[in-house]
Amino acid sequence: MRVLESGNKKVILLGNEAVVRGALEAGVEFATTFPGTPASEIGNTFYKIAKDVGIYFEYSVNEKVAIETAAGAAFSGLKSIVAFKHFGLNVASDTFMPIVYLQASPMVIAVADDPSCWSSAQSEQDSRWYAEIAKIPMIEPSDPQETKDFTKLAFEMSEKYKTPVFLRLTTRVSHTKMPVELDEIKSKSKKGRFQRDWERFNNLPPHILELKRMVLEKLEKIREEVSEKLGYLNRIEEGSDNIGIITSGVSYHYVKEACKKFGVNPSILKISMANPEPKKMIAEFIKDKDVVLVVEELDDYLERKVKLVVKEFNIQKEIHGKDSITGVGELRVEHVINALQKIYNISRFDFSLRKEKYKNIEVPKRFPTFCPGCPHRSTYYAFKVAMEELGLRREDVVIGGDIGCYMLAINPPYQLADFIIDMGAGLGVSHGIAKSVENQKVVAFIGDGTFYHAGMPQLLNARFNNSNLITVVLDNSYTAMTGQQPNPGSDVNAMGEKVGGVKIEEIAKAFGYKNVAVINPYNLKEAIEVFRKALASNEQWVIVSRAECRLAMVRRLMSKDLKIPKFYVANQVEECKEKLMKIGCPAIQMDENGNVYIDQDLCWGCGLCFQVCPQAVRAKVEK
Amino acid sequence: MNEKNVIINGVGGQGILTLLDLLANAAMLQGYEVKTAEVHGLSQRYGALETHLRFGEKINSSLVMEGDADSIISLEPLEALRVVKYASKKTVYLINTFKIAPISLTIEMKKYPELSFIEERLKRFTSNIIWVDASNKVKEITGNTIATNIYMAGFAIGYGLLEISPGNFENAIRERFAGKDAIIGQNLNVFRRGVEDGKSKRG
What we know:
The complex is a heterodimer.
Chain A: E1 10-14, H1 15-26, E2 30-33, H2 40-53, E3 56-59, H3 63-75, E4 80-85, H4 86-101, E5 107-113, H5 128-134, E6 138-139, H6 144-161, E7 165-170, H7 171-174, E8 176-181, H8 198-201, H9 207-227, E9 235-237, E10 243-248, H10 251-262, E11 267-271, H11 279-287, E12 291-295, H12 301-312, E13 318-320, H13 333-344, H14 351-358, H15 375-389, E14 397-400, H16 425-436, E15 441-447, H17 448-454, H18 456-464, E16 470-475, H19 504-511, E17 516-519, H20 524-536, E18 541-546, H21 550-559, E19 567-569, H22 574-581, E20 588-590, E21 596-598, H23 608-612, E22 617-619
Parallel strand pairs in A: 2-3, 2-4, 4-5, 5-7, 6-7, 10-11, 10-12, 12-13, 14-15, 15-16, 16-18, 17-18
Antiparallel strand pairs in A: 1-8, 9-11, 19-22, 20-21
Chain B: E1 4-11, H1 16-29, E2 33-39, E3 48-56, E4 71-74, H2 77-82, E5 92-96, H3 103-106, H4 115-122, E6 128-132, H5 134-142, H6 148-159, H7 166-176, H8 181-202
Parallel strand pairs in B: 1-4, 4-5, 5-6
Antiparallel strand pairs in B: 1-3, 2-3
């Protein structure tokens, strides 16, 4: 494994792998996560190597639990790291704030934002603002090499200043690969010891205010000793004209690239620690410039800080930022070139002209869909049939969706999710709707990973406050969308301990639900029957639709050289053609003569097509 | 060498991220600075997948600029069209002929466009379009289409698009699949066929 290569080597690493390597070089002993893209590979990499290195790693139930667990390790004297995506920080925020006061260290909190929302519904969140609220020092690397170096540095800082450190990543840092120079790994197995210390942990009023004072003083100390230290985290590259560019994170590379392409040489202030920001360095940088442009992705976080420095130091300068560079979506070199053209008042590139040329070329959409054989497709198929058989109109059934593979049900051909908000909210909001409407059925779909993560309080609430919500839990035994990570439904945890999976139907029963059913989605008839019963009643239901993630199953079979079952179209039955195509399985296709066929490389043998059209489809029997 | 700006794309599940990693490693072994970017969300679920590969003496951004691709390696014909904004006169397109119909077409029982329809549109941007019968070739060699990605790399290198030596790519294969000798053997075999075919296409 590249991430475990010995020092003095150069290997290609993904930004997220570089976080792990940096932590290992710093001597990390304890790592936690809840998977979420673009941060998923941090946990996945720890998962692969933790046992070999001798350190502890867990997939926690959610991000709040993950940060608490990592803080517990830090309080016990172990070097800990927790990683999640930006929305994870929302979930973890309740703990994120107080552990800064309580000096959880050495501890690094790695958070990956997702400009352009490549893997994120919800919102295009800029997590840098959290650094302000929590008063935590924040470090932003621009590429995998810096990610490795800065992660290591973050641990050193955390230890020295007795504060957790916020390592802020973005998709383009997390999901970029480049050769990274390695140093030696220091991590090894270690047990800690918790020291009682009420002076430190006393966050009751009025002492809490003393803690706050201490945190603020610490930030000022870090500002002087780290942030203002020229050439350390924050650095200046002198240019040859009077234009100044202030930038951070991956935007730095877009600035460099744009200047090269555009043929200009402004001075660049690269800020890798924007909290606490280097006020004096910024003032000094701006002083002799004619115009200053702040280049950053998402919000005007840095720009506001620069504008405050301008006020505080009473400098009269023209500061540009979000008036020239979009605050929506991921930045690209093109955006920076456009801003430079404005500032230098020279026009060399016309991207809008290009856009005119390609924008009218229509390409059929290729939206993501369930894998061939996915149990979710069967569950939604059964649900749709049950609705139709009962004569329920689509508008009379409210369907709450949630975060996970099954959110793909929002796409055609199923379109069986009316809203997707955030993890667990499908259940919570659906309960609210159920309490508000009459003559509408309310159904909430949630996956097993999301159910454990943030669905249990909602399920309990719906039971206690008595709504006639139908909850369908799609249980495929993994947190599948982010890469089949184990969750409390799995038999074995991340450290390989056989712990026994928790059954969701047992939780529902313990909560007091009377109508609890478990269905096998691959048994279409039975699944339809249960959905019919639930939809026809006016009662609370919990239906667990259980079948293993097909992708995981197929991978397991392939690794053992076992055959995957296959189906094929034996008869071109006219009335079946549309029915088969409308299943929306990637393996079911139509040839140039209008004949339906099943691609044998893609078929993963769930048999849904066979149950839909037994007169057309046959199982392939291997000789 | 001037920097190389390469787009590699196709459909999630076609081994594009593996191909990207192998080429990045090979470029590093060749002595270049290299960066890759994976522009994707839920690509494993049969979505469109776009990746960027840049290498040369000094590389900052991992993303290729619009119109700035030296080559575009598309593992699926429709997907070639989806990334046309990166193409300009200088761009060489290498496109696998193997069609994967998107769900948006199949559920509406609509036909997949003809390759000539795709080519006509690509030609508005560049005249250098090379169709490669990669998946079918690979199926002949190995019995399935899994190693299409490796064949495409071989073809691109054999054709001289990337200025990476076959030996360095072979070493990247050996590193990536270390311990799995059968897979290494098969991939080297497919890769070499790709190199040969790329060379003979070049003439």
